[in-house]
Each structure stands twice: as C-alpha cells, then as structure tokens.
Amino acid sequence: MNVLKFGGTSMGDENTWRRVLDIINGYETPVVVVSATAHTTRQLLAAADKALENLEQARQISHSIKNRHHQLIDQFLNDSHHPQKADIQQSCTNRINKIIEILDKRLQDIASTKKISPKNKDAIASLGEQLSAYLLARCGKAYGLKTRWVDVRQIIKTDSNFGQANPDFQQITQSINLLHKEIKHGTVPVLGGFYGENYKGEITTLGFEGSDYTASLLGAALQAKAIEIWTDVSGIYTCDPNVVQHSRPISQLSFQEATEMAYFGAKVLHPCTMKPAAAADIPIIVKNIFEADHPGTKIHNQQTRNGWAKAITYLSDITILTITSNGSMKGYQFLAQVFKRLHENGISVNAVTTTEASVSVALQANFNMQILQQDFEDIGSVNRNPTQGLISLIGCRFDTAESINQYIFSAIPEAKPSLISYSKTKQNLCIAVSETELIPAVCRIHDSLFGEGG
Q: Does residue 193 share a domain with residue 324?
C-alpha cells in the first residue's frame, strides 16, 4: 500500500488531473490525498479578508472559484464516454454549487460581524480540499478507476488550535479502519489534505501546505510501504531551483535533514511531515508528475554523506534581536527570562547565539517587534537589526573552522554577517546577512559547495 499525495500544481487543470489519474492507476493499492486546485486556498482566504470591507467583491472571488471548477469539470469530462457520465457531471455540479453556497454564507457572516474568527477562517480555508477531493474521485470514476471520495474529517482528529491544529494520532489510528475497509472492497480512497476536525466536530486545519502532513499521518496509521509526495519538481533540490540556476536534486535525505530544510525555508514539504513517517519508519519519496519515472528524493531514517553539505535554504524578512543583561540577575536567570518571554509571545527562534550576558536571536518579522522589544527592556538593553536574511546549510559536516572559511566565507568576502550559529549535532550552519546580500550570497555559497569543484 502506498499513500500518494498530489499538490496544488498537480491539481491545476484537466490535463494535470489526467496525469494524476494515470499515476494512481499504476499502483495496486493506493490511498490518495490531494490539495485544493492551484491558487484556490489563497483565493478563499482573500475572499474572507475582502468580506470585511466589501461583500460584493468577496462574492466575486467566490464565484470565480465556482466558475473555474465548473470549467475544469466540463473540460475533463468532455471526451469521456463513461456510461454514467451525465450522473457524474451532475454530482460534480451539485458539489461545486453546495461548497460555494457554504462559502457565501460564511462570507455573509464575516460581513455582518466585521471579524474573521480563527474557527471561521479554518472552515473557509478547508473548502478547497473539500471540493477538489470529491471532484477528482468522481472524475477518476469517469476515467475508469475505482476512486471513491472519503471525507478526511472521519479520520483526522485534532485539538482546537485553529490554524495550526495538533493531530490526535491515537484517535487517527482508531479511525483508520475506515480506509482499510475501502481498500478491502477494491476502491481507491481519495481524501482532501490539510484539514480535520476537533472533538466538537468543528473543522480545523493543520497549517499552510498541511496536505503533506495529512499524507504522513495516514501513511503512518496505515503502515504504508511508502508516502509519495507528487509535485512539479523532481525531488528536493540543493537550493531553490528558481533562484539558483545550477541547483540539482538530492537523491537521499534523512528525516532530520528534510525537517531542518522545511523549517529553514525550503517550500517542498510541510515541516511536520517527517515526524509521523519517521516514527513509523516509512520512507517519504518526493516525485514529479511531469517526470514520473525520475526517482526523486527519498527521505528515510538513514544518514548519508556526500560532500560538505546536503543543501542550502534561506529565509528573508529576518530581524536580529540582541538582548544584553543589565546585570540584575545571574546568567542562567537572564537566559531563562529571555526564552520565557519568547515563549509567552508564541515566537519561534530561527537561530540563536548566547553568552552568559547576552543573547542574539534571529526571528521572522511577522509580529509586532516593537512590543517584543519593550518586553525585554526590564532585563537588559535591546539592539534591533532588521531587514536581514538567514542562510542555512543543512547537513553540513565541517571538521574545522578552516574548511568553513574556505568554502563559505571566502565565497562571500563582501558580506558582513550579523549572526553565525553552528550546531554540530544537527549539522546546521546559519549565517545572517543583510537582505540585499542574501540572494547573491546564497548563489555564491552554492557554487562553492555544489559547483564542479565543490
């Protein structure tokens, strides 16, 4: 049994749907997880935001989603000769209309209350997957496959942390028998990723790009042979191929390396994807729907070594905060207070360097930095260094400082790092530089490590 997850690009139009169904048809017992069709989730959230100020414009977005899905189904089924084509088309039409009715009602609620609750936002965001999974399953039947839609809420149970819900794996393993029954009857279950429900039956989401996480949770519960993430690139690359021209696919990564890449800016996988698969020792394979025969990238429990590093990732819009103790408390108390305040503000740290008297942290600047800075001023002085970028070398195995200098800093002599953090245990090297230097530095470091001489 293989769990196959197809992302938004794979769900883009009727041509990619045919590719997806051809891939599914090549497996004996697949379980399929899909994202919303390309751009739909962003449109849904844009409609919610627009409803705060202009309901009519929000409804225009809603109806553009409706029309696009009607067009997709019409074009897909146009050449079908399935004897139940008319019934399949009508069921798809009814599903699209029903989902849009639900969306329009929620947009009306937002316009009336002038607020978007986290619960309502999750319910709206999930509609894309609720739509795409059902439609693909019905079109699969018209394509000659035994595909059947299964509402993922029957299986993926979570807490009530809307927007970033935590799955209850014990509940998921108890509910997974539903999929075993479908497989036993010879059907191919098709489920929407990204969302689930809490114990009250309210819709929750697992975080942006959470369909990968859904696939991993289901794969672990099913004890699948592999979890395959199908996208539009042939695996995970040494760096973003849209930025670095000579980046190349990585044949193998450990679960830890893939997790670090996701947290430090690589956009191929949701950061939590690796955890269920690693616990169940099930490999994740990242593959390309446009090059189905390419082996892609295999992520598993084994560590492999090739070269000085596995990959380079980067984050922009970083702020470096340096908090220096005012001397009113002991070193360990000062450090505890710094991280206590970060925890209370719900802020994740991307990189950190510490001494007994000062702490420098690299943070994504997506919250009120001024309030955070004021929160630290009772324990020390605060220096803020905004508009930084963070370069991360994943799986780096530098044995000496000389080798780091040879391959990294000699490649970017003009850069003036504002923070350097190295973890030998996690094998990560993080370097913060000015955002204007970020992309040129990434490209030059990549050439140094992965070029012909690297």
A: no
- Give CA–CA dist 433/437, Å, rounded: 6
Eight-state DSSP code of residue 157: B
CA atoms within 13 A of residue 312's CA, in its CB half-sphere? 30
The domain boundary residue, chosen from 300, 331, 347: 300
Closest CA to 205 of 104, 274, 100, 125: 125
* Percent of the chain residues topping a pLDDT of 70: 98
45 and 160: one domain? yes
Looking at the DSSP assignment, which residues form a beta bridge with residue 299? 253, 284
- Asked which of 259, 281, 300 is the last residue of a domain, the reply is 300
Which residues pair with residue 172 across a beta bridge?
none
Domain count, the chain: 2
Tokens of 318: 């970083």
Based on the domain organization, do 217 and 154 belong to the same domain? Answer: yes
Residues whose CB falls within 8 Å of the CB of residue 202, separated by 6 or more in sequence, listed in order? 119, 122, 123, 160
| Structural domain range at position 359 | 311-450
Q: Tell me the per-residue pLDDT of 342-359, one tens digit each, with 9 for 90 and over.
A: 888 888 899 999 887 899
Residue 325 tokens, joined:
């103790």
For the segment 219-247, the average pLDDT, to the nearest whole number, is 95
Q: Rounded to two decimals, what is the model's pTM?
A: 0.91
Coarse DSSP helix, strand, coil percentages of the chain, rounded to the nearest 5 percent:
45, 20, 35
